[in-house]
User: What shape does this take?
Amino acid sequence: MSKGSDEGGHVDFTPDELMTVAASRALRNDDVCFVGIGAPSEACNLARLTHAPDIVLIYESGTLQTRPDVLPLSIGDGELCETALTTVPVVEMFQYWLQGGRISKGFLGGAQIDRFANINTTVIGDYDAPKVRLPGGGGAPEIAGSCHEVLITARHSARTLVDTVDFVTSLGHGSGPGDREAAGLTTAGPVLVVTDLCLLEPDPETRELVVTSLHPGVDRDQVVTATGWEVRFADELATTPPPTAEELQVLRDLHARTEQAHAGG
Amino acid sequence: MSKGSDEGGHVDFTPDELMTVAASRALRNDDVCFVGIGAPSEACNLARLTHAPDIVLIYESGTLQTRPDVLPLSIGDGELCETALTTVPVVEMFQYWLQGGRISKGFLGGAQIDRFANINTTVIGDYDAPKVRLPGGGGAPEIAGSCHEVLITARHSARTLVDTVDFVTSLGHGSGPGDREAAGLTTAGPVLVVTDLCLLEPDPETRELVVTSLHPGVDRDQVVTATGWEVRFADELATTPPPTAEELQVLRDLHARTEQAHAGG
Amino acid sequence: MAEFVSLRDAVARYVHDGDTVAMEGFTHLIPFAAAHEIIRQRRRNLTLIRMTPDLVYDQLIGAGCARKLVFSWGGNPGVGSLHRLRDAVERGWPAPLELEEHSHAAMAAAYHAGAAGLPFATLRGYAGSDLRRVNPNIASVTCPFTGEVLAAVPAHRPDVGIVHAQRADRAGNVLVEGIVGVQKETVLASTRSIVTVEEIVDDLAAPSPNSVVLPAWAIDAVAVAPRGATPSYAHGYYERDNAFYIAWDEISRDREQFEAWLGEHVLSAGPTGAPV
Amino acid sequence: MAEFVSLRDAVARYVHDGDTVAMEGFTHLIPFAAAHEIIRQRRRNLTLIRMTPDLVYDQLIGAGCARKLVFSWGGNPGVGSLHRLRDAVERGWPAPLELEEHSHAAMAAAYHAGAAGLPFATLRGYAGSDLRRVNPNIASVTCPFTGEVLAAVPAHRPDVGIVHAQRADRAGNVLVEGIVGVQKETVLASTRSIVTVEEIVDDLAAPSPNSVVLPAWAIDAVAVAPRGATPSYAHGYYERDNAFYIAWDEISRDREQFEAWLGEHVLSAGPTGAPV
Assistant: This one.
């Protein structure tokens, strides 16, 4: 599915584009969303520019209700402040807005996501002798705890969707039912993982991630091969609706504006 | 000593004026002063308009480094904000500026002040069945604890300068040496009490307030009669220098401007 | 999400008998219009939280709305006593008033903790103060690293928070300027919130990227109440009526005189602020 | 009380080998000029505190100034890894780097506690996170009222805090605008503080009564450093050099290439900012 090619009369799109579009659809017009940089930021701004014009986007740099015209490279690009309703100190952001329980959705990525949607952004390998030292938790451990619900997005591979994360940076569903509550949390935790192959949702009973929708053109084997545990499929397995022409256009325009803006020195 | 009358060629003044002038002299040009309303505010602004032009005045309403042209009636008059370097939230004021240890001098009054400079602004009589319900602590308990030094000003009477306060709203020197430290404090506490009759300072050994300077025209008997404990006098008892013509002029101008400003509806 | 409603509807909908209500504004922007509406709607048994009860709670207490007061400084600023507050505490008129008494630092920390979703606040406070003795809601907490013992107070979590502000835009976002007190904390710490404003404008015209703005989605009701802070003031709109603060001393000293004032200026006055 | 000094003198006077140093600026206003002066003056064994180490600490670490890093997110924002940080952690080059790792929420709370003169901060944090397991400076504290158990971290109390800001007036008062991060907390939590500014002006021209202003009496040194935040940015002055952030990935990937860059652009460059 290369961008621009034609396939059976449909608008054509890349797996990454579908992933972003599918993630954007999980956001509602009345959401207040704590946005991570990269894929989450893309999805959130796509939602804002399509079906959720009133969605409130918050970046941990303190920018409240921001409407960037281009995607920020960092969590604190000038664009975010200039288009925000207001910009608050970082202490206030984490204490009043996140910890205060004012955020409906947190949107996270991760280097490893396991079958219970626990997220690792700290190390691959042993903490004290890491194979790869990753950037770390940043805002994620408390986004995972304090937002009413969490969305996750990641490219699907057996290195990323693993049976057990090497390090729990941010708690998903622990090792099953009751673990969030035992950790003192009352929030829902991860409700959806969007990859470039499918959608996964926690099983209501076991909390294990289950494939609930395959993206167009993806088959079960592809998902099984790319997943680090014996992944289950929902009884009623859906097919993700492809991106609409409008969604693709808005997303591509956003990327074009962004590339132009960041090319400058 | 009625205002305006002549007495031996000196500039004439009232006891209240002398009290304010003497209090103002206790402030230094490099002080950062947390200012209570009323007499403390008068003294601090007099200092700023005379010998301490750079003194930093802070009111608990959040106004940092303010230069009111007239005395505020309340701790949060518009004048304070309009002439401030900046105005911060009240939470920040108490947490970062006061508790953070950034204030060199706190300036307090009180309905009762006892021989160890403990202050009562809560109740006369029993707390649960008060004879007089006073306004309460406000900022004072932590001003008394967190400022590097505390100044106190009050009109001298046996009802105000008492042996033991009915209620310790704000700790002075407790019941003597070591009590502040036992309460977890490392600050100096009250270093001077300015009344309309004299100056009192804590004895370095016992921490009991001792008269160190009599105001001009005041004799020891007046002070003894007006003090609720057997007050002691320092061996080297000074006489408070009378207000200068400039001090009086600045103070009276300040009062005149203030009365005019507050008369409006 | 903020809805524009009349002040009458806002109070009818969000303030109930027995509620814990915080009406803040540190000398500046005191929500008098909202308080008068609460008096007119004859709310009873309220627990009133406010750092400086001021005339606004003196009036609510004298009108018989309050059962309990949580506060830190209960005077008429620069003038003297709050006579209605004293009459309630000293003589139980019109009803006994339970007091929970703090310092400003503790009240501010309690609002901060409430807004921050914490159950308690830690402060270096109350050292050697008898307030610890009379208020069981002043406890201690020990630093797990240094062993230092500090004071702790419960977070404020009012049922309703009410503040006044300069203006709202048509989406319901609110600008607060000048002495901002604990207004933001009050709105964020409360389960429900009402903001009265001087006016509604097309553009908030926030002067700085860091202006104090309450987003519409953090507020339940926005009601227009022009001069809604009088005799307090609104920076950029009108000045404090210091003469009324001075006059209040006389008005409030006597029960009948107070009731006459209340009848004329509150009970028989129409509600301030029109529906939008 | 703020003194105007050259950046060279400010670093010479206030930053010592072995100090705990916090250089803050959340993406915006990162004090690169000050960091480069620290590299030029060859400070060693620093404990570096910063929420987002960013390129600024990647450079300090690669230059061998650091012994320990206290942080919460150590990436090149939107680009990828910090290769000098990784080289130090994974392979001990140029020196081993001890890590004390937190979350943003905890770091922010720790600065808040430091500025507020408290020994520790309480937060709803780290629930179920392995960070608790690897960082002994994450402890628990129990609410004395509800019995809830919350996370606690020690307050940040750096020896030196360094931030960059838009401008200072001639008295040394400093205006910070835009994304203000934890700059105020950093200055107030630190024993000593250096503020670099784009320019010194007669009038701060603070746009709002509630503008973020650091008073001169809360600062030790103010040094002029035009474009002192580059490749970060200064709201109202210049934009973020996103292209350099992207280019850094290549520059920093290789030890020799990094050292060549450091030699050319830092070590042999003159100090930014002239004496006043």
